[in-house]
Amino acid sequence: MMDRAGRETGTQAGTGIARRRRKWGALAWTALSICLAAPASAQPSARDRPHTGSSDIVVKAPGEAPAQEKADWKRAETDHVTVFSTGGEDELRRVASDLEQLHRLMARLYLQGSSEGKALKMQVILMDSRDSFQAMGLRDLRSQEGPFPRPFAQQHYYDPRESGDVLVIARSDQTIDLNTSRRFSSDCDALSAEGADFCTTAPRQLPLIRPWEAILAGAFAQHFMVTYLPAAYPRWYLDGIGALFSSVDIKRSGAIDYAAPPAGYRDVYKSYGYPQITDILTGRYLGEADGAQGWSPYTAWLMTHFFVFSKTKGERYDQFQRYMAAIRRGTPPAEAAANFGDMPALQREIVGYAGHDVAYSHAKAPDTPPPAPVVTALSPAAAALVTARAELDSRLSSFASGDEAGGQETGRDRWLARLHELTERYPTDADAQLFAAEAECRSGRIAECLGSAERVLSSAPDDASALTWKGIALADQAIVGPASARPARLAEARKTIERAIALDSQAPLPAIAYFESFVGANEPVPESAMQAMALAIQRVPAAPAPRLDLGRELIREGEQELAREVLAPVLYGAYDSPERKAAQTLFATAPANAAHPSTSAP
Predict the structure, then answer these.
(1) Which residue segment(s) compose the domain that 264 sits in?
(2) Within a domain: 38
(3) pLDDT band at residue 341, thresholds of 50, 70 and 90?
(4) Judging by DSSP bridges, how do beta strands 249-250 and 256-258 pair with one another?
(5) What is the C-alpha to C-alpha distance for residues 202 and 64, in angstroms, rounded to an integer?
(6) Could you tell me if residue 526 is inside a domain?
(7) What is the 3 state secondary structure string of 98-122?
């Protein structure tokens, strides 16, 4: 299913980048072109016609329930994902293998992501229970789903970070209550149609169980899209992609069935209804509670399956492609939805589609199966860091977003104090000290950050991560220190970061730190730093912060339209984030030639 409109847009973008090569070196622009590359299609590459049918320390904020103390964490690693769990080793191995096979399936379908090592592996953390997941108090700062009704909401946490994406879910099945007032009325109407004079009671419906593995597969599929096909997608579409692959069925032979209807989907429609398609396509449902009525992962599956896998009329398919291409260009969803024309007719078609025999697709087993996951038992120090790493952005967000002090700020400080307890318990553990350095640098505690990095370097002078955090701390000290000493101190900081890059040229954080050492000092960014930042974005394509940093510098250099291409997934994509608000402000205050009518959030 090639996206004709999207392919034309990609060609025009490539031409624009080529014109700008005269300013920077070819390598920089080649790298930037790759990191900007929008997908030619947001759908599978071929439109297959489917067929039917020891007490470890756990760092937590005060007042939180204990997360997973005394837990034996294990790690399973494949070519494209790392999974952490305290469950059984056989289950962990199976989950990691299934995610790797799902990745390879999507790479075959979308013609992206087949090579190992381009993007950083996502870290998946499986909590023991729903209670332990909720006790972490994670905040959806850079990704959101739905909005869904309460029975379907808040089933996972996803954070696209500069250090690699993080996904957290509970190894606990979701229970969906089907006994709603809508269902009671529907059942009563059915009884009346059978001749009953009145309805005092209707049959009680058993709850629908949604396996946690389905939630995990759906979240992984969404991660694949924003990582390997980074572009501006409407949120409903990413919800739908997740739902399409949530029902993936991986056979022992390696063959895979996917896009099948989720179990019990028609019962969900009876109990929760259908959404107003107009509200979904125009994005009204994102801001108006009544506009989200009937919206759930099950209706997301229906809507996306209709457009992607059904035998829709050619006209409808073309309308959908034009709509998606318009969204990628930054057209407000309300305007893009005009491509569908008669909305009431589209509503009838999609609702009617739910009653049809719905198709699914089948992929043959690959010629070469993926290698088995490598499973490792974590050390006590590493185990203590698993949930702390997941919590990091949520705990530091009050500082990062400039919120006022009070409860959130105090919680952050106390969380950092608990982190120091951990590092004191494991003073020679490099991972513990490096995690402390990251948290301290990001909290503005520069001296503490430098001290943590130096402790690692004292025994491992070639540790690239430690050199990175040392360089960041030195650069920050130089920027806030005396102006007379700044050039020499910045030179020392950059020399330290350059050494980290030389030791690990594939790590994004040293490249980002090198770039930011110039931006933070309000100095022109050299070509080498621009090249490094472009390559870093390739490694973490879904992370909005590096795109914002690069976009800001491009605007400073007068490259507003290129900046808009870099920032398109942030400005117009599915997720709200602090970086989206900053990008909107960036373009709102840019020179007049940067003006664009569509910088508002969809």
Answers:
(1) 74-173+216-363
(2) yes
(3) very high
(4) antiparallel
(5) 41
(6) yes
(7) HHHHHHHHHHHHHCCCCCCCCCCCE
Is the separation of the CB atoms in 101 and 254 below 8 Å? Answer: yes
Give pLDDT, residue 67: 41
% of residues, the chain, pLDDT over 90: 66
Q: Rounded distance, CA 183 to CA 197, Å?
A: 19
What mean pLDDT do residues 410-430 have?
Answer: 85
Evaluate if pTM is beyond 0.85. Answer: yes
pLDDT at 567 over 90: yes
Task: State the pLDDT at residue 419.
Answer: 87
Q: What is the C-alpha to C-alpha distance for residues 427 and 436, in angstroms, rounded to an integer?
A: 11
Would 189 be classed as within a structural domain? yes
d(CA 105, CA 160): 22
Model confidence pLDDT, tens digit, residues 460-518 = 999 999 999 999 999 999 999 999 999 999 999 999 999 999 999 999 999 999 999 99
- The number of domains in the chain is 3
Helix%, strand%, coil% for the chain, nearest 5: 55, 5, 35
Extended strands (E) in 518-592: none
User: Which of 310, 332, 363 delimits the end of a domain?
Assistant: 363
Q: Is 361 helix (H, G, I), strand (E, B) or coil?
A: strand
**pLDDT tens readout for residues 302-338:** 999 999 888 777 889 999 999 999 999 999 999 999 9
Q: Which residue, among 102, 101, 68, has the nearest Cα to 87 in the 3D structure?
A: 68
How many other CB atoms are found less than 10 A from the CB of residue 115? 9
- Domain boundary among the residues 308, 328, 363 is at 363
| Helix ranges (DSSP H) in 210-296 | 212-228, 235-246, 265-272, 277-282
Residue 164, phi-psi category: left (phi > 0), alpha (psi -120 to 50), beta (remainder): left
* Residue 192 shares a structural domain with residue 273: no
Say how many C-beta atoms besides its own lie within 10 A of residue 251's C-beta. 12
pLDDT score of 402 more than 70: no
Q: How far apart are CA 398 and CA 407, in angstroms?
A: 10
Q: What secondary structure, in 3-state letters, does 437-457 show?
A: HHHHHHCCCHHHHHHHHHHHH
> What was the pLDDT predicted at 189?
75
